[in-house]
Design goal:
Layout: H1 46-57, H2 60-93, E1 108-112, E2 118-123, H3 138-147, H4 159-172, H5 182-191, H6 198-214, H7 217-227, H8 237-245, H9 254-263, H10 267-270, H11 276-292, H12 298-305, H13 320-335, E3 342-346, H14 350-371, E4 375-382, E5 387-391, H15 416-425, E6 433-436, E7 455-458, H16 459-464, H17 468-478, H18 480-490, H19 511-516, H20 519-523, E8 533-537, E9 543-546, H21 558-573, E10 587-592, E11 598-604, E12 608-615, H22 630-642, H23 669-678, H24 701-706
Parallel strand pairs: 1-3
Antiparallel strand pairs: 1-2, 3-8, 4-5, 4-12, 6-7, 8-9, 10-11, 11-12
Helix pairs in contact: 2-6, 3-9, 3-11, 5-6, 5-7, 9-11, 11-12, 14-22, 15-17, 15-18, 15-21
């Protein structure tokens, strides 16, 4: 049997095992020949292995920082690209830059008195626009110190301030600082809504850069200070200065400027009208910032911080604002829509206005609680119908309701002059005798005060004593229709009831119209047009509207006026209105309604006609106040001051053989006023129809000749 051969094992060439006698492939041969034999690897120590592992993992701390830096750069690049995209996107939504322009500031209405004194600023801003040179230098310095310390060096955006604000907000965990510059705030106020969105912020930045490119720093700061909100309805530094300090922005002190600048953080919350302590505390922060910025020194800061805290009313104060409201009500009818700043010259005498306001407030302060009187009105007109003073209530800050022009109240006996005028026009005279006794007209039986009657009396005596029974008889004789016609002719405009009770003034009227209806008695029988405005012009002097002096119609015969003045002058001399007497030829009438709810005195001289009312808004009765007490006293005090230093003038008189008003023509009117105050009768002493000892009169030669 043939022996089977053992199969031969094939040895394949290996390129990685040297020294086997095989030829290396040409692909593995180096340029210098064969590869050197491989050395046996040494055993690696543990430390070396760990070191290499760290190297493979990133190279230690340095490698870690390097990696972080790399990715931060990458992310920063992508964030920049994204931010640029957002800016481009929202920027594309905005109108073309060529159409951008600063919007006009809302128009301001400057209301001034006859001598140019500012009465009020009205409009959306509540104040005029003023230049930087027209305001206290402390104001822009204080605002820059607390709002934008690098205002003069940045380009509309402050990267340093923004970074500081971000850091502060992150470290405190709340938004305590903002990074907006003054330019950004102006951009927001001028063009944007107060929405907190990315779109609004991007647009704010773009607009701020545009503003800086288009306008100087001075212009930007001036626009900002004239438009920014300072709280309590005040926009701009002029409005705020008037509102909080009652002075123009040019007169603001360092401490006041710091207070204004401090309000910008939270105008409504920090307003001194709401929280004086918070406003003062914030002002001290501003002063510290001004010192740190080198704008003031330590002594200036200490002096300013020691200034008393500013306290402001919650609303405009001053009775002149009742007039300002009336002006704003009438202005559109004269010039149409108000689209730019205007100056309104009124008929108001600011000095008389303050006298009127102080008189009403003082008498209510002194007697209000005791006599249950909370409101008062005073209206004063000259013979042309120009309103020289008007007080529409005790305090405008607490109530802006104008009782002089809007509140209708019963005039009581202050309406009786129209009853007597109708009687005189029907043939009676001051000497006509009438019966004062109980009277019944249908189911109506009016009675005199305290049910006291005098029998047969003259018309003049009856009016001076305000006898109700006589007034009722006169209406019965001449007819209520004649009385109503006479009242309308003189200037009453409210609806009047056609019944006998009109004799006692039961139909309601406003104080302004009742006072205006007495003016024809003062000027000789002419009814003027009641007005508040004389001229409207632009700040540059261009006249937009001016009152033209037209013809004033005569509404009552001069002889009738003379007889009425003769009778009504006795009211002040010896009748119910003796407390109103102040040494001038004057006439008037008291008025007291049922339960003393409304008490009046309306009277006049040859220069002014003035009406006074006291009462309560809720129509509650006063404590037995009469027209001859508080209203007559207020009329006396106001008219005495208004006529101080003015030559005495007589009223239009009557040449008949009746009692004439006779007054001494003294230069020393002050002496007469003082003696009259001393001899004045207490409010409780004389009622509306109560008889009192006649007042001593100055006797003239005419009195002796006439047997008076």
């Amino acid at each position: 049997m043939t022996r089977r051969k053992k199969p031969r094992t094939r040895i394949e060439p290996r390129l990685d095992v040297p020294g086997r006698g095989t030829r290396p492939s040409s692909a593995s041969a180096g340029a210098r020949g064969r590869a050197a034999p491989a050395r046996r690897p040494r055993k690696k120590s543990g430390s070396s292995a760990r070191s290499r592992r760290r190297t493979r993992r990133g190279g230690g701390l340095f490698g870690f920082l390097k990696t972080v830096t790399y990715w931060c750069v990458v992310l920063g690049i992508w964030a920049g690209i994204a931010a640029a995209g957002v800016v481009l996107w929202y920027g594309a939504q905005m109108p073309s830059m060529t159409t951008w322009e600063i919007p006009d500031r809302p128009p301001n209405v400057r209301i001034v008195s006859v001598d140019g004194t500012l009465v009020a600023n009205r409009g959306m801003t509540g104040g005029e626009a003023v230049g930087l040179h027209e305001m206290s230098p402390y104001i822009p310095e204080a605002v820059i110190a607390i709002e934008d310390r690098r205002f003069h060096s940045h380009f509309g955006i402050d990267p340093i301030g923004l970074a500081r604000a971000v850091f502060e907000n992150l470290t405190t965990g709340r938004i305590s600082q903002g990074g907006s510059t003054i330019t950004q705030q102006l951009a927001k106020n001028l063009f944007l809504k107060p929405d907190r969105t990315v779109e609004r912020k991007v647009q704010e930045v773009l607009l701020a850069i545009w503003l800086e490119h288009k306008h100087s720093k001075q212009q930007i700061l001036e626009m900002y200070l004239n438009r920014v909100y300072f709280g309590s309805g005040s926009y701009g530094v002029e409005a705020a200065s008037r509102r909080y300090f009652d002075k123009p922005a040019s007169d603001v002190s360092l401490s006041e400027a710091a207070l204004l600048a401090g309000l910008l953080k939270a105008p409504s919350r920090l307003s001194p009208a709401r929280d004086p302590k918070a406003a003062e505390k914030r002002a001290q922060v501003v002063l510290q910032a001004m010192r740190d910025s080198g704008m003031i020194d330590d002594s200036q800061m200490t002096t300013a911080m020691s200034a008393p805290a500013t306290r402001a009313t919650a609303f405009w104060t001053g009775a002149e604002h009742y007039v300002a409201d009336k002006v704003m009500e009438e202005l559109p009818g004269l010039i149409g829509e108000i689209t730019s700043d205007v100056v309104v010259e009124t008929t108001l005498d600011f000095g008389l206005q303050k006298v009127a306001e102080n008189t009403i407030r003082r008498l209510i302060d002194e007697n209000g609680k005791k006599l249950h009187v909370s409101q008062g009105v005073l209206v004063s007109l000259d013979n042309t119908g120009a309103v020289r003073a008007m007080v529409g209530g005790y305090d405008y800050a607490n109530s802006q309701f104008d009782r002089a022009t809007e509140a209708r109240r019963q005039p009581g006996s202050a309406f009786k002059p129209f009853v007597y005028m109708a009687a005189v026009e029907n043939g009676m005279t001051p000497d006509t005798m009438v019966r004062d006794a109980p009277v019944r007209i249908g189911k109506w039986s009016p009675s005199n005060f305290n049910d006291k009657y005098y029998g047969d009396v003259s018309l003049s005596f009856a009016l001076s004593r305000s006898l109700n029974s006589v007034a009722a008889r006169l209406v019965s004789q001449v007819g209520a229709k004649s009385v109503i016609e006479a009242a309308y002719r003189m200037g009453i405009e409210s609806d009047l009831n056609n019944n006998a009770s009109i004799a006692l003034g039961t139909s309601e009227v406003t104080p302004l119209e009742l006072t205006a209806a007495y003016v024809p008695f003062a000027n000789g029988g002419y009814r003027p047009f009641v007005h508040f405005i004389e001229k409207v012009s632009t700040p540059e002097g261009k006249v937009l509207w001016q009152r033209r002096s037209g013809g004033i119609p005569r509404v009552v015969n001069a002889r009738v006026v003379g007889m009425m003045n003769t009778m009504m002058s006795r009211t002040l001399e010896e009748g119910t209105g003796r407390k109103a007497y102040f040494g001038w030829p004057a006439a008037g009438k008291t008025g007291t309604t049922q339960s003393s709810r409304d008490v009046w005195f309306v009277g006049f001289t040859a220069n002014l006609t003035t009406g006074v009312w006291f009462g309560n808004d809720d129509n509650s009765p006063t404590k037995k106040v009469t027209g001859g007490s508080l209203p007559a006293q207020a009329w006396h005090d106001y008219m005495a001051a208004a006529h101080s230093g003015i030559p005495v003038a007589s009223l239009p008189g009557w040449s008949g053989a009746a009692v004439q008003p006779n007054f001494a023509r003294r230069d020393d009117i002050g002496t007469l006023i003082s003696s009259d105050r001393t001899a004045s009768i207490p409010p409780e002493a004389v009622g509306e129809n109560e008889t009192a000892p006649p007042r001593s009169r100055v006797t003239s030669i005419l009195d002796i000749l006439l047997g008076n």
